[in-house]
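Q: what does this look like with guanosine-5'-monophosphate bound?
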Amino acid sequence: MAGEPQADCLFCKIVSGEVPATVVRETDTTVAFRDINPQAPTHVLVIPKAHHPDAASLAAADPQATADVLREAGAVAADEKLDETGYRVVFNTGSGAGQTVFHAHAHVLGGRGLNWPPG
Ligand code: 5GP
Ligand code: ZN
């Protein structure tokens, strides 16, 4: 069923605590934790606690949780003092775009200059 935990999903295991993570924020519906392989001085992932394979699936199934993820991305940026210098929120979608974990997640990246367009 949409949203149910998946036994083989790394981020569901982070939600359950089975896999440890450096959690920086948590709400009833979201978890934000530091990326294990940071691509910028601040690189935090914000995920819905419910399992959805990508951002569009999440938005279709649960608009409120989608809004919660985006609000928390902004809160992470404020916590990390990125909101004045600028930051990027990225949802890689599909393996061709670099998605490797198929549980929706927003990358919050900042703390260095960010080129546009990204690679
Ligand atoms: P994607 O490539 O799917 O857009 O993003 C997945 C992200 O998850 C990558 O940036 C990767 O470094 C991160 N990641 C993969 N495994 C782990 C892990 O076990 N813990 C944490 N904190 N991040 C992970
Ligand atoms: Zn999952």
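The first helix runs from residue 10 to 16. The beta strands are 23-26, 30-34, 42-48, 87-90, 106-110.
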